[in-house]
Amino acid sequence: MPIATVNPATGWTELTFEPLGSEEIEERLRRAAAAFDRYRTTGFADRADLLRRAAELLDEDTPDIALTITSEMGKPVKAARAEAAKCARTMRWYAEHAEALLADEHPDDGDVRDSGASRAYVRYRPLGVVLAVMPWNFPLWQVVRFAAPALMAGNVGLLKHASNVPQTALYLEDLFLRAGFDEGCFQTLLVGSGAIEGILRDDRVAAVTLTGSEGAGRSVAAIAGDEIKKTVLELGGSDPFVVMPSADVDAAARTAVTARTQNAGQSCIAAKRFIVHADVYDAFLERFAAGMRDLTVGDPADEDTDVGPLSSEQGRADLEELVDDAVRRGATAVCGGGRPKELERGFYYEPTVLTGITPEMRVHREETFGPVATVYRVADLEEAIAVANDTSFGLSSNAWTTDPAEQERFVRDLQAGGVYFNGMTASHPAFPFGGVKRSGFGRELSAHGIKEFCNTTTVWHGA
User: Fold this and answer.
1) Using one digit for the tens of pLDDT, what is the confidence trace for 49-91?
2) Sign (positive/negative) of CA torsion 182, 146, 172, 158?
3) Which listed site, 115, 127, 190, 222, has its alpha carbon 20 to 30 Å from 32?
4) Which of 337, 325, 323, 417 has its CA nearest to residue 368?
């Protein structure tokens, strides 16, 4: 894939970039290692000042960078502005909380004495240069949720961003430089995926984090495992959205529309499979389908647009294959199911609701990365949990019920990294984010995320 801005609303290539050569990559690796040697000794207060300044600059830059995001990957401009604002808030959150999150931990005095020590504690120290392989769907947020905690912990970053968002990738490097971070603390590498292995195997790179497809995760994890380097993976998701009889069906249906179509459905944590108890199935489906039909699909630069184009022609083709396969095998498209006829250019796809899903359909097993929802009718709680877990993924989950016993069952039995009741999954810096099964391993955000790229060091003093 060329490193280029291809506007998804038009299909036109607006800007192309030459990938870095081997000598340029080597210079950036050298610069990163030198920067870490200096930066790791800085204090939390100094790091926090730099990160707060980055947040201020991002606030100032939001109108322009939002338009860049819209032109590169098709996100509606109002959503792009919201993404930038969330990034600035997260930078400020880590600037405020990182020192406390990484404070020395002191074991119980009795355990210290029993170990034969006069004193002992645990200290969190930075690992070094962290390679971040990031996707296009949230081109600022995916990077910042790694970079903010990593930089506050004293690490430095190398960003290999998706090849279709090069301008956003270069903006991020420039943002941290303008904020006052030393040259080399955060660098963007405009390289193709073929260059990742050599960079990751370099001894100066200590760890890697990847958000992306299952295939990319397998590849990077295999290389990192061979090199025995710390890895965090956030991969695909096919999150369940369960609606039980005690739910507020109107609220559930309204939220379901947003949960499925935010970012044109191109989100790992978007609800994708809607699992509805038979007692409320008809009412939910009617309201949900009506809400999907009412969405405005169109130019992402238009403030009134709800759903923009998919990020690429290939992405739309992949989605079409899943829907066409399901319909051929007996599924019903209650709404949508094709390209909007009034939008001849660009990579648009209609918000779609499919019912009658059976296990032999690809859409039952594969992630739908676009505004396509599958709806299942279930008879009871047991069947709801069974259908929810009938996936290779386990990123997050949503359950709509006010019954405490049902809520406890969902917490106990849903195979996912998060369980959200009577709302939709959303990431926040205070809460850990990540999944199980083929959705990856490790956690981002919160205290758990900032410690992923730290050397947890036991310090022991003899009597």
Assistant:
1) 999 999 999 999 999 999 999 999 999 999 999 999 999 999 9
2) positive
3) 222
4) 323
The predicted pLDDT at position 374 comes to 98
pLDDT (mean) for 209-223? 97
Per the CB < 8 A criterion, the answer to whether 153 and 103 are in contact is no
| Six token digits for residue 160 | 């290999």
pLDDT in tens, 321-365: 999 999 999 999 999 999 999 999 999 999 999 999 999 999 999
Alpha helices in 40-76, H assignment, sequence order? 44-73
Distance CA 354, CA 362 (A): 13
Catalytic residues: 234, 268
Topology of domain 3-235+439-462 in CATH is Aldehyde Dehydrogenase; Chain A, domain 1 (3.40.605)
Please check whether residue 157 is in contact with residue 151, taking contact to mean a CB–CB distance below 8 angstroms. yes
| Residue 1 binned pLDDT confidence (cut-offs 50, 70, 90) | confident
Assigned CATH class of 239-428: alpha beta
φ/ψ bin of 164: left (φ > 0), alpha (ψ from -120 to 50), beta (otherwise): alpha
